[in-house]
Amino acid sequence: MSIKVKKLSSISPLGQLGKFKENPLAFLDELKETDSDIAQFRIANRKVHLVMNPDFIKDILETRAAGYRQSSKFDELKPLLGEGLITSEDPKHKEQRKKMAPLFTKEHMKSYRLKMIGTSEQFYSQQREGEWNLSDVMMELSLACLSRTILGMDLAETKEKIGAPLYQILEVGTKRIQSLLKAPLSFKVGEIKAYASAIDELNKTVDEVILVRNEKNYSPYDFLKMLLEACEGNRLQARNEIMTMLLSGHETTANWITWCLYAICQNEDVKQNLYREVDHVAGRNKLTPAMLERLTYSKKVLNESLRLYPPQWMLGRTAVNDLTYGGYTIQKGDIALLSPYVMHRHPKFYPDPLKFKPERFQEGIPKDVPDFAFFPFGGGARGCIGNHFAFQEALIILSMFIQKFDIQLVDENRIVPEPFITLRVKDGLRGEVWKR
Ligand code: HEM
Question: Member of which family (predicted)?
Fold first, then answer.
């Protein structure tokens, strides 16, 4: 098989680092235009391969996943996450994933949705009309749904005991992930000191919840009870997994809904269809699980939003040995970059790729789109364990918003994506929101 490779050369000792850091999405978009299977470039002394062939992506994430290890970007967050699902490596990861998988089946989702509905209902009832920073609002609500479901905590408790330290951790942690020069974490002064004490505070809260819950008898579908069983009573492991969920499950979902609101405001016909469906299915009544099943157009809108604005815009893997693709070799130590953002916007797989068209997802993922040309939740043994959880939560938060509010964006022309750990709206999405 002959494959098309685009090689970028650079005389700078840092290679393409400057260009990549300045505007990663523009950099990737330019490479996509070359219509290559792989684009190769250098970041400092590391060879990097942006893989744009869906079969090779499948190979990296699924078929020969053992030939690669996770990118080290979460190492900075190890003091918080310990050896949870995201940070652990095989054989520990494999064992732990097997134990945790039963908590995330579609059947279990049904038992979580009443908690998500109740939390969203209460949250929205506390909001006033006016200008909202929708990015912040969705962040708070998605964290509240997550924390209610996995820890049984209410809105106020979540805000004070989970939200406050978690945002402090994320602020410092993400800054450190992005910077090349940083003081070691053992150097506990200034920012690092605040980071360490926010981690201690969050650990203490979660430990207390675990301790109290461990002694009580809860319903068979109680998340924390099941998690403790999955961790065979190991409370430290349970805490690591909770931290992992809090971190991987809230910003992603919040950004998904935020981008979705942006997209519908940009596409009046989609917006009207969405309002029509929610009004038809739910009207002014309390949202019920049965109604969620019938929100078929809303699900397409959510999928199309994941396509154009995938919260996890880039995944990274390091090769642990040489791997060959049709005569081309990714060498041991090289980095393979896999970008849902690039693949989901590729004209080879999506006609008119920049147009927001929920109809593409008529019956799930379009049949002519190859596996791994749509992979917002990654794939293989390290694919997102929370995909059904996230989908259900996003559907509840979005449809209830539509049911209760109308929205007009403020200053919509200045909205640009900011590829942080997840794909955010730079400086937050602002909108005028009023009750219906
Ligand atoms: C829009 C929402 C979400 C998106 C787009 C998303 C995306 C992803 C992706 C792409 C990965 C794979 C990363 C890689 O291979 O490097 C991943 C892993 C993971 N996600 Fe999600 N996620 C979302 C929501 C959630 C939620 C709600 C939870 C938990 C409640 C969650 C928990 C996890 C965990 C634990 C992993 C690591 C799995 C492993 O390595 O075994 N995610 N997610």
Answer: Belongs to the cytochrome P450 family.
Distance 433 CA to ligand 1 centre (A): 30
Considering only CA atoms, which residue is closest to atom 21 of ligand 1?
384
Residue 17's domain is classified under what CATH number? 3.30.43.20
pLDDT(323) > 70: yes
Residues in Cβ contact with 300 at an 8 Å cutoff, skipping those fewer than 6 apart: 358, 359, 360, 361, 362
273 in a domain, yes or no?
Answer: no
Is 379 touching ligand 1 by the criterion CB < 6 Å?
no
* Tokens representing residue 382 in the block: 């390290």
Name, in order, each residue with C-beta under 8 angstroms of 281's C-beta and a sequence gap of 6 or more. 291, 294, 295
Residue-level length of the chain: 436
CATH number at residue 91: 1.10.630.10
For ligand 1, say whether the CB of 248 is within 6 Å of any of its atoms.
yes
pLDDT in tens, 331-380: 999 999 999 999 999 999 999 999 999 999 988 888 899 999 999 999 99
Pocket test for ligand 1, best of 237, 377, 389 (most atoms within 8 A of CB): 377
Shared-domain flag, residues 155 and 208:
yes
Domain limits at 177?
Answer: 83-259+377-397+418-436
Q: How many domains does the chain have?
A: 2
Kindly state if the Cβ of 85 falls inside 6 Å of ligand 1.
yes
Give the dihedral of Cα atoms 343, 365, 106, 275; nearest 10 deg: 100
92 and 180 inside one domain: yes
- The stretch 34-48 carries a mean pLDDT of 92
Tokens at 122, concatenated: 């209460």
Q: Are 39 and 47 in contact (CB under 8 A)?
A: no
What are the pLDDT digits (tens) for 157-190?
999 999 999 988 888 877 776 666 666 666 666 7
Shared domain for 111 and 246, answered yes or no, is yes
> What's the pLDDT tens digit per position in 251-304?
999 999 999 999 999 999 999 999 999 999 999 999 999 999 999 999 999 999
Given pLDDT bands bounded at 50, 70 and 90, which one contains residue 56? very high
- 245/329 same-domain check: no
